[in-house]
Amino acid sequence: MTRHRVILPHFPVPNSLPAPSVELDSETEHYLLRVLRLQLGDSVEVCNGDNLSWRAELVELETGAPGITWLEKLETRNASFPVVLAQGMPKSDKLENILQKSTELGVESLIPFFSKHCVVKPKPDKQKKRLDRWQKIVQEASRQCRRTDVPQVHTPVSLSELPDVLPPGYLRLVCWEGETSQSLRNWMIEHADIPGVVLAVGPEGGFSEEEITYLGEHGFASVGLGPLILRTETAGPAVLSVFQFVYGSFGDTVPKT
Length: 257
What we know:
Elements: E1 4-7, E2 22-23, H1 26-35, E3 43-47, E4 53-60, E5 66-74, E6 83-88, H2 94-104, E7 109-114, H3 127-144, E8 152-153, E9 157-158, E10 171-175, H4 184-190, E11 197-201, H5 209-217, E12 220-223, H6 232-246
Parallel strand pairs: 1-3, 6-7, 6-11, 7-8, 7-9, 10-11, 10-12
Antiparallel strand pairs: 2-5, 3-4, 4-5
């Protein structure tokens, strides 16, 4: 029998057994019983979006309300190398595609930012609605690719604010087509054992030299991606794939040479 898998970020998933059954709130009940058309007695895998995953069963509680009873704690499947993608705000719906593909490729979190060459301008009145939509996109992508966590999408910031919202301890890297002295490959050979990376990718127009200087002053090393110029929606996922192959779930660590 196929077991459906759902990610419920705000659902009270237990840490261990025994654990009491939990009544479904109206939103979760609608999703499981109406959208997914599950029935009482069906087995379901429930993830809380923070690396906790359980095999559970839909049951009728003593009150007559539908609920979930916990059967077995499952092993987490994530083996991704931690990458924070700082993405220059692209135009149209390109960011949604970047969010989806980056989630599938194991990104830890995403920080959209506005810079000099961004065509899209900040719209504070639409910020919450847009952020809610982005978070739903990464949640659905996490469910589809069977992640047990959900990346966080940060509120968009300006480039000057970006260094203030970055996690500590991660190396900082910016992809720049003007960089000819340091390739991504050589940088990775020199950094075989690292805790994580903040990867900055510019918008359609790329970064200006002044912006690269600013990022360099805040700890970013610039690397080139070869002679081809990648679209902004291609660059981030492409580098994420390389990171996961070398450092994370696609392969072993970089050989020390």
